[in-house]
Amino acid sequence: MAQRSSGHAAISGLPDVIAPNFKMRLSGVTSTIVQLIPAQRAAGLSIAAFGPGLPASVARMGYGDLVRLWTRPARRRFRVWHARRNVEMIGGLILRDVLRMPLRIVFTSASQRKHKALTKWLIARMDAVISTSHKTAAYLERPSTVIHHGIDLDRFSPPGNRADAKRAVGLPANKKIVGCFGRIRHQKGTDLFADALVEPLRVHPDWIAIIAGRTTPEHKAFEAELRQRIDRAGLADRILFVGEHRDIERWYRALDLFIAPQRWEGFGLTPLEAMACGVPVIATDVGAFSELIAEGETGHILADLEPSTMRDVAERMMCDDDLRSTLGANARRHVEKAFSLDREVRQLGLVYDSVAPVTDDAG
């Protein structure tokens, strides 16, 4: 049994695939690792995380195990180091090229911007590169495999009764609810969401809006100013800040409509999570949103970032119960077909096998 940090899920022997996590604070990358590793292990892959900031449910190897990684794996000639940040690519290169560990490095890129010189240099030295969207792939100077993130379809699922789902999280069952989930900050467009809904909420007293998410210290002033604007509009009791929740799936199930108002996003899981819960989605055209949402079938992609554009589309959907019901049902089927977590696990496995094939004589 490998040595590990107390309280974390056990790993048997040394893993074939290592998922480093070199950031303490919860982030989208960390969330991806937390979601994927249990599913990958359930599918039979020998994988463990390495680094801090992970919950006890995630199998993790300790620092003592790192020294033992020069031992040849049982089923592969090379172990796989799956990096998702620059610092993790650097760690993999030190292990592979300086310390001569039998290792292959895979990097997942979610960035949609021109890379700096250091990042380009690092990516050029990877054994394989994965892009989380076709937009992301277009910014790379080398070929990559596009693998969209997947969703746990058991965790994120439609409610049996939406009114009961609203009651379960303390929201009024007799109200229709439009939501915006994610960190509260300018980049996430929380202010666009609130501004766009001022007029629709005044016209439709049967609707309320909720904002779920955490505000980090550097964005407290942004939140305070936003609350003041909402209060001045007379909507403090109609646009509710409900905080951060680990059981966020319960809040998605309470929604009738979801809006993803981001100004910028690397990938963006929230539309998938909402659609998996049978909720139609309105989203800005950033991140992978245009690749996730089937325009006119599961929701709508906005033409621009103007609050008036968001307002007009939201107004049309808030007025039409039948349309929302149809789009919500389509959304669930769409995610089941194209964005399951099992599909992501299978596709990642093919990349691992391409750089570090399983061999009968390994070990």
Question: Main beta sheet, described?
Answer: 6 strands, parallel
Count of helical segments? 14
Count of extended strands? 12
Task: Estimate the mean pLDDT confidence.
Answer: 92
Given helix and strand content, the structural type is alpha/beta
Q: Give the terminus-to-terminus CA distance.
A: 17 Å
CATH architecture classification name of the largest domain = 3-Layer(aba) Sandwich
Radius of gyration: 22 Å
- Stated plainly, the CATH topology of the largest domain is called Rossmann fold
| Residue windows where pLDDT falls under 50 for at least 5 positions | 1-8
Shape: elongated
**Helical fraction:** 25-40%
Supply the number of structural domains.
2
Order of helices and strands: EHEHEHEHEHEHEHEHEHEHEHEHHH
Strand content: 5-15%
Overall CATH class of the largest domain: Alpha Beta
Biggest sheet strand order reads 2-1-3-4-5-6
Q: Write out the CATH superfamily name of the largest domain.
A: Glycogen Phosphorylase B
Description:
- The protein is α/β, with parallel strands linked by helices.
- The protein has 2 domains: 17-150 and 342-355, Rossmann fold (3-Layer(aba) Sandwich); 162-338, Rossmann fold, CATH 3.40.50.2000.
- It has 14 helices and 12 strands.
- The strands form 2 sheets. Strands 2-1-3-4-5-6 form a 6-stranded parallel β-sheet, with helices on both faces. A 6-stranded parallel β-sheet has the order 9-8-7-10-11-12, with helices on both faces.
- β5 (128-131), α5 and β6 form a beta-alpha-beta unit.
- It is elongated, with a radius of gyration of 22 Å.
- 44% of the residues are buried.
- The model is unreliable at 1-8 (pLDDT under 50).
